[in-house]
Amino acid sequence: MCTEPCESVSVKQKIDWYEKQDTFGIHLIQKLNSHIERVRTLIADAYHELVQQRKTVSVDAVKSLFLGTAEDTVTLRKLVEYHNRETAHKLLSKCQVFCSIYLT
């Protein structure tokens, strides 16, 4: 469930409803509705992905998957940290061999 206090997710779209009451405004509103529908679909996809992976489905889990902040989300930073963690001992051992051969 949503933790206290609940946070909202913005679709990053602003509209001045008083200025947009002409035909241009109608097209703008249709475009905004289309954007909202795409966001709704992405949220539904996040929900279905959690269900398929047999993970616990909650509002926070869907939100974090939708926003890309889920634990399983692989980011470039996580990839670099993994690389550094996995290769540090290999580089250190090669450096020690190099130093012992060429510096003695």
3D structure, described in words:
There is one protein chain. This protein has 104 residues and is mainly alpha-helical. The chain has helices at residues 23-52, 59-67, 76-102. α1 (23-52) crosses α2 (59-67). The longest helix has 30 residues, at 23-52.
Topology, element by element:
Blueprint: H1 23-52, H2 59-67, H3 76-102
Helix pairs in contact: 1-2
Please give the share of residues in helix: 55-70%
Strand content: under 5%
What structural class is derived from the secondary structure elements?
mainly alpha
Shape: elongated
**Number of distinct beta strands:** 0
Rg, Cα atoms, Å:
24 Å
Q: What is the total domain count?
A: 2
The arrangement of helices and strands along the chain is HHH
Largest sheet: none
Give the mean pLDDT: 76
Which residue ranges are poorly predicted, with pLDDT under 50 across at least 5 consecutive positions?
none
Q: Which terms summarize this structure?
A:
3 helices; mainly alpha; 104 residues; elongated; 2 domains
Question: TL;DR of this structure?
Answer:
With 104 residues, this protein is mainly alpha-helical.
